[in-house]
Design brief:
Layout: H1 8-22, H2 27-34, H3 38-45, H4 53-62, H5 67-75, E1 88-90, E2 97-103, E3 109-116, E4 121-124, E5 132-140, E6 143-147, E7 150-154, E8 159-161, E9 168-171, E10 178-186
Antiparallel strand pairs: 1-2, 2-3, 3-10, 4-9, 5-8, 5-10, 6-7, 6-9
Helix pairs in contact: 1-5, 2-3, 2-4
Length: 187
């Protein structure tokens, strides 16, 4: 659990359980809808393991939420988010760091600040892009985005607007960290 902030793991576990139980779903129901094993979901809910970004995206998608929406519900964020209070989540597998700069259930925009460590990648399924439009703006470093098989190489200052939902790979092929901002709108 060390990859998550100390107070984030219990909140994510409790939120997953609440989302599942409020729908009347068993672990098996959520496993079937998300493609995440029943055993893994159980371990996450019991705070025995830290979920990766891909697993959280799949679970959020099963609830018809974005990853940001799921994390926001876990954090209970309001209208104003002070820099020191913006929730940060780190993928235990890749070290990918995701800071939720702005997100509210009643607002169509979300802003996420991401740092992708050197030589790491995150692959997100098409389901994570359902019902959203997304743009990525690279602040520092270099980022390769492979969207629907098309490779885009972005440097500092470059911006890419995404097309229709498809599997997307975010890859840092360099030896330096890459920082980028994701701005998304729910449709």
């Amino acid at each position: 659990m060390s990859a998550l902030l100390d107070d984030t793991a219990p909140r994510i576990a409790a939120r997953l359980r609440l989302e599942r139980e409020s729908r009347g779903w068993s672990l098996a129901d959520l496993a079937e809808r998300s493609g995440v094993s029943k055993a893994m979901i159980s371990k996450i809910e019991r705070e025995e393991v830290s979920p990766t970004a891909v697993i959280l995206v799949r679970l959020a998608g099963a609830f018809d939420l974005t990853l940001a929406g799921l994390l926001l519900r876990a954090e209970g964020q309001g209208r104003l988010t002070r820099a020191a209070e913006q929730p940060v989540w780190r993928d235990p597998k890749t070290g990918y760091r995701r800071k939720q700069v702005f997100s509210r259930p009643d607002h169509p925009l979300e802003i996420i600040d991401v740092e992708l460590p050197p030589r790491q990648q995150v692959v997100l399924p098409a389901s994570s892009y359902a019902h959203i439009r997304q743009t990525v703006w690279v602040r520092t470093g270099n980022l390769v985005i492979i969207e629907a098989g098309e490779r885009h190489e972005l440097g500092a200052g470059d911006c890419l607007g995404f097309g229709p939902p498809s599997e997307v790979t975010f890859r840092n092929e360099t030896i330096a960290p890459c920082a980028y901002v994701v701005v998304l709108a729910r449709s």
